[in-house]
Amino acid sequence: MASEVSGVGKGIRKRVTTAGSGTLSDFRDGTKAIFHYRTVLCDQNRTVIDDSSEKGKPMELIIGKKFKLPVWETIIRTMKQGEVAEFLCDKSHVLEYPQVSRSLRRIAEGQDPREGQRHCCGGIAQLHDHSLGYPDLDELQKNPQLLIFIITLLQVQEPGSYRQDAWAMTDQEKMEAVPVLHQEGNQLYKQGKTNDAAAKYYEAIACLKSLQMKEQPGSPDWIALDLKITPLLLNYCQCKLLEGDYYQVLEHCSSILNKYSDNVKALFKRGRAHAAVWNASEAERDFSRAVSLDPSLAPLVAKEMKKLEERLHEKNLEDKIRFRNIFH
């Protein structure tokens, strides 16, 4: 049963449709709020602009991290876990919504939210002539209007009770998270959970990459971070080899070898990936280079080359039979 409308702040009206449970969190900085949102126009049809429940992934907001749409933090602070409420927000609170919505839509589509954005001064006004790639958001950007947010607060997680995503961490938190993620990845790999292990290694790499982006390429600090990234990337490639994702292995091992041409592990893994996709000469070249740098690998390389020769022989026989049948 809906409650009466109440004021949250200047230009924000709230109506609770489902009461929450427990006590209201103090939402101190670092608290994570996980919620579904539906964004609705104040027209006769209550036209839906966005609905996170349809995308299957709820929104995660870290209190105190200065999210681009401050009104969401304001309204979340008034809610209990499990509560569903509608918030009518004046135009002044939602001018940034088209930009935020664009980013969230692109993330849901598996795309880079920053791609295609134009960096310029002057705020929203100068963006009016720039398409966001979504006609409804372009219209909303050109003609700002009141919006209704229907929020379902799924969960409130206190600071320290969860691991933050890399983008939400401080530099210190990122550095502290890397060895933990590395160890978790190793444990999962030992258990045969290569996909989960790869995700841990990837998360650790993301932490280090975000730190590396702040350094001058080639500087001592940049190189120090790169030397931390390399073993994680090799572990990630090992997982991808076992999963059969050979082209990712080729790409990442090549990026390592472009910087560290004598990295034996990268040469061996790239050789295996080349062999798996029938690049026989490239595989032989990588294996040969790996053995010249580390002769102890000779037995392993011999085994890999024998497997490749057997597979090539089988493939040649299959091709001969196939071509013979074509001309019959």
TrEMBL record:
Record-level GO cellular component terms: cytoplasm
InterPro entries referenced in this protein's UniProt entry, alphabetically: AIP/AIPL1/TTC9, PPIase_AIP, PPIase_dom_sf, TPR-like_helical_dom_sf, TPR_rpt
Subcellular location: Cytoplasm
Molecular-function GO terms, alphabetical: peptidyl-prolyl cis-trans isomerase activity
The keyword Amino-acid biosynthesis appears for this protein: no
Per-repeat ranges for TPR: 264-297
Domain AIP/AIPL N-terminal FKBP-type PPIase: 21-154
Keywords attached to this entry: Cytoplasm, Phosphoprotein, Receptor, Repeat, TPR repeat
Entry function: May play a positive role in AHR-mediated (aromatic hydrocarbon receptor) signaling, possibly by influencing its receptivity for ligand and/or its nuclear targeting.
Subunit structure as annotated in this protein's UniProt entry: Interacts with RET in the pituitary gland; this interaction prevents the formation of the AIP-survivin complex.
Protein name: AH receptor-interacting protein
Organism, as annotated: Xenopus tropicalis (Western clawed frog)
